[in-house]
Amino acid sequence: MTTWLVQHLTAMRDALRRLFGAPLNTLLSLLVIGVALTLPTAGWLAIENLRAVAGDTPGVQQISIFLTLEAGQPEVAEIELRLQQAKSGSWRYVPRNEALMRLRESAGMTEIIGSLPKNPLPDAFVVTPADAQPESLELLAKTFASWPKVAHVQLDSAWVKRLDALLRLGKLIVVLLAVLFAGALVAITFNTIRLQILAQAAEIEVAKLIGATNSYIQRPLHYFGMLQGALGGLCAALLVGTGSYFLTPPVAELAQLYGGSFTLQGLSTTDIVALTAIGGGLGWLGAKISALIHLRRIS
Amino acid sequence: MITANAVTKRYPEGHEALKNVSFEITAGEMVFLTGHSGAGKSTLFKLLAAIERPTSGSIVINGQNLAALRRNAIPYLRRKLGLIFQDRKLLFDRTVLDNVLLPLSIVGHPVKDAPRRAQAALAKVGLPNRAKAFPITLSGGEQQRLAIARAVVNRPAVILADEPTANLDTASAIEILEIFRAFQQVGVTVVIATHDPLLMARLNPRILRLDQGRMSEPLCTPASDAVTP
């Protein structure tokens, strides 16, 4: 146990010494890894923020049924009965007077509504379907439209669905980017470790001859790859953090111009830890593969 | 301690470096492995150090059969042997002390105690004041002593040396052999491959003579060997 710990500490110290022994090399490697990780991270952050915008939007998955203006109490009762029989989910009746009253409450509308000769709004039903599948929503909307005295049926989720599809596409692109750049990170580490093994060929040969196990030789290399990857991850977090710091004010301003309040969410502590861990893991993988391949040549 | 039984080593290109070699070395013995260059000394050294495997036959060191040793058990066998290579294999990018610290690091010796232990090994070979020097600044004899210090720092029960006095003047060579004798006197088994007959006479060791890959019989006495090389 103690020996095991001593060997790991020694390997770690060895890796750190090599990392800081060539500061320029290390800095360049970290920058390359940082940039490689920045792109997918920034993409992911953008998607997360857009999803927050979409999630805030009310009226998701609702169907509004507007009756014709001449529809009266019997027609309303008829629709209520049909909705009860259809068992398509919960629903709410919005009488035309209530709708007008609510409209009057919204800012700037009082005068306009006061100038109207009569209530232009129809009676309406807002249905929240139990089954939110896009196909069944379409089917329900069609059924409602065929009922008597129904003037218009609106599927409120349409644009949300479009945004959702877009977000899913974006997410896929981010995942593909992430895979691509993860491969790049592994390749960068692979090459760094290859060069290290070449530079230390004499030492490795001697160590093997006097009883070093493969683990003893590989351990510092693994640590090196892991540390380099983890520091690269931190570097990426720093780059993304700087980016979102500069983007937050203009985004908030833009949101305000559209009458909303939206704050750009940067990376959380968990995100930074995850990014560092992913960088470290990928670096370790690159080092592991490289050590396996290149150490075999030194007997 | 070391038993070789009908050991044959044939290289892929067909050259037979060792032919049916058998011998036994008891614990605490000092043995010279001798013969002309190309007689198979270095090959036998490589087999004893598990750097190569015999084509047939068995080599048993400390109860372990090298021919049947699993690949990942080899490092642990080597740690029990003090190996001194013909080309010394010193690391010139680090100090004398760091060279001696390497075997301690390999076995996971406590970091705090390691320099003391390494320093003691350097003192034993007569290099107590060169710890901070770089190997390139050492003379040939000093470099060889450094190689011995590195081999013995883990206190092996067996020392295997391949041509340890090659390229050394007689005075340095004698110093080196005295160091080996000192280790033998405290119970270490010492096996030295050499073709230098002059030195053998001084130590009165047992001699195993190889001739074109065969162990020549009977084992000659050091005196007769020195007179008729």
Descriptive account of the structure:
The complex is a heterodimer of chains A (299) and B (229). Chain A has 299 residues and is of the alpha+beta class. Chain A has two domains: 2-57 and 161-295, no CATH class; 63-156, 2-Layer Sandwich (Alpha-Beta Plaits), CATH 3.30.70.3040. Chain A is 73% helix and 8% strand. Chain A has helices at residues 2-21, 23-56, 73-86, 96-105, 110-114, 134-145, 158-199, 201-209, 214-257, 269-295, and strands spanning 63-67, 89-94, 124-129, 150-155. In chain A, helix 9 (214-257) runs antiparallel to helix 10. Chain A starts with a helix and ends with a helix. Chain B folds into two domains: 2-80 and 156-227, P-loop containing nucleotide triphosphate hydrolases (Rossmann fold, 3-Layer(aba) Sandwich); 91-155, no CATH class. In chain B, helix 3 (96-107) crosses helix 4. In chain B, strand 1 and strand 2 (16-25) form a beta hairpin. With 229 residues, chain B is of the alpha/beta class. In chain B, the strands form two sheets. In chain B, strands 6-7-8-3-9-10 form a six-stranded mixed sheet, with helices on both faces. Chain B has a four-stranded antiparallel sheet with strand order 2-1-4-5, with helices on one face. The A-B interface holds A 2-4, 6-7, 9-10, 202-203, 205-214, 216 and B 49, 51, 72, 75-79, 83, 85, 89, 91, 93, 102-103, 105-111, 150-151. Chain B: It is a peripheral membrane protein. Chain B: InterPro entries: AAA+_ATPase, ABC_transporter-like_ATP-bd, ABC_transporter-like_CS, ABC_transpr_LolD-like, Cell_div_FtsE, P-loop_NTPase. Chain B: This is Cell division ATP-binding protein FtsE.
